[in-house]
Write a structure and sequence with these properties.
This protein has 214 residues and is of the alpha+beta class. Helices cover 29% and strands 34% of the residues. Strands 1, 2, 3, 4, 5, 6, 7, 8 and 9 form a nine-stranded antiparallel beta sheet that branches.
Length: 214
């Protein structure tokens, strides 16, 4: 069997759990907490990893894996360089989508919303909680810009560490964002690809729940 034939044979049959309307909380934030807690308790690797998608000013999408760093009933927070590609895209088009996928639980959550910057105090707090190496990396890396080679980045790290040690603060070009949702979709894998999909839409400050066909 060649690689193409092997690729076609890759198939995982879902069916561990179900997701019925009677199972879910009427508040999507509470439902997220339930599923996220189960992912954490299951000791899944990088349970807070998510795919963040943004769209440029000329409507070209881009996606990348990030880590969720905080959330509450107002939104979901992540941190990055404001001058990175995603930062520039958010500046020009502040709408985005997060996807959490936990294959071990056969679950996925999509969250669509508007992205806004966190206040500087929250960004300062998180920055100062990071390990020293991560703080230096966030400060010196010209994220998304072209580098000559790896050595150039390593030299930037070394030079900054020698000149500043631990005596530096969060740069203005690095900080947090919050995605404020207007749509959630909870997806549970089922047999024969007849997956359960429960969607919540925000309409006039109320969450409207509905089932979607798989």
């Amino acid at each position: 069997m060649n690689m193409k034939e092997e690729f076609k044979q890759i198939r995982h049959e879902y069916g561990k759990k179900t997701l019925l309307e009677s199972d879910v909380n009427q508040n999507p934030f509470e439902q997220f907490k339930i599923w996220f807690s189960e992912a954490i308790k299951s000791n899944l690797p990088d349970a807070n990893a998510m795919c963040l998608s943004t769209v440029s000013a000329d409507s070209r999408p881009s996606s990348r894996i990030l880590l969720l760093k905080d959330f509450d009933d107002s939104g979901f927070c992540f941190f990055t360089n404001y001058n990175s590609r995603k930062g520039i895209e958010i500046e020009n088009n502040p709408y985005g989508n997060m996807v959490f996928f936990w294959p071990e639980l056969e679950r996925q959550i999509r969250i669509e919303g508007k992205i806004e910057k966190l206040d500087t105090k929250k960004s300062d707090i998180y920055f100062n909680e990071r390990p020293l190496g991560s703080r230096i990396a966030a400060t010196v890396s010209p994220q998304s810009k072209v580098l000559k080679n790896r050595e150039e980045l390593d030299q930037m790290m070394q030079k900054f560490a020698e000149q500043n040690g631990e005596n530096f603060t969060r740069p203005d070009y690095w900080g947090g964002y919050k995605l404020v949702p207007y749509l959630f979709e909870f997806w549970q894998g089922r047999e024969n690809r007849l997956n359960d999909r429960i969607e919540y839409n925000l309409e006039k400050n109320n969450w409207i729940q509905q089932r979607l066909a798989p």
